[in-house]
Amino acid sequence: MIHVLGKKSSLLNQFISEVRDVNIQQDSMRFRRNLERIGEIFAYELSKKLNWEKKEVTTSLGVAECEVLKEQPVIATILRAGLPLHQGILNYFDKAENAFVSAYRKHHKDGRFDVQVEYMSSPELDGKTLIISDPMIATGLSMKLACKELTQKGLPVHTHIVTILASMQGLDYLKKNLLNDKFTVWVGYVDDELTAKAFIVPGLGDAGDLAFGSK
Q1: What is the predicted pLDDT for the residue at 113?
Q2: pTM of structure
Q3: Residue 87 Cα distances to 2, 56, 176, angstroms
Q4: H helix and E strand count, the chain
């Protein structure tokens, strides 16, 4: 299942327009905050698909029956670009455990690149709901490798992939190599073009550099 939230008009569209804007991008604090706000919107939307239960809550005047999450998800991100988006999701799932995967593109002289995973830290995942975020899905390879790396800690009952922008090619790759009925993808916009160097067009540029400075 793939949900493209940008198809419906909402504040999400406003925030995405700002993270794409080359003028607003010059303010790295504003850029990070917008990624965080986008993460909060994704967290709210996907929370509707989680399991809820009734709970009696004692107020100063009586007892109220409320709905609360039945269990907390595990929130994961791909370092470093995913950190602000991850923080936005964590703002809403504030009791959740967290996981981190470090992945980067290792470029070769002929222009090719491999995606390398160097580090992973995660709680046990067996039987849990996993939410993994990355601002952009270009080729889809980083997300596939990150999800594979996380399975060392067990198999989630369901995995929600959160991304702001994705290429059609990247989503097609994930459909063929990762997605099944235990995965849901939440994406803001899908861009049609992916360059020979695997940059999404129009995209937004390098989210990690825009958020934290050039490497």
Answers
A1: 66
A2: 0.92
A3: 22, 30, 30
A4: 6, 12
**Residue 18: which residues within 8 A CB-CB, separation 6 or more?**
24, 30, 34
Contact 31, 37 (CB under 8 A): no
Structure tokens at 196: 């020979």
Cα→Cα distances 191→49, 95, 137, 165, Å: 25, 34, 10, 7
Structure tokens at 157: 């009952």
- Write out pLDDT tens, residues 154-166: 999 999 999 999 9
- What's the token pair of residue 184? 């849901």
The structure tokens 């909060």 sit at 40
Could you check whether the bond before residue 80 is cis, i.e. omega within 30 degrees of 0?
yes
- Low-confidence stretches of the chain (pLDDT < 70) are 105, 107-113
CA distance to 53, 54, 69, per residue, from 64 (Å): 14, 10, 16
The whole-angstrom separation of Cα 167 and Cα 125 is 28
Q: 198's torsion region: left (phi>0), alpha (psi -120 to 50) or beta?
A: left
Joined together, the tokens standing for residue 152 give 């060392």
Domains and CATH numbers, the chain: 2-48+73-212 (3.40.50.2020)
Q: What CA–CA distance (Å, rounded) separates 30 from 76?
A: 23
| Beta-strand pair 2-4/52-58 | unpaired
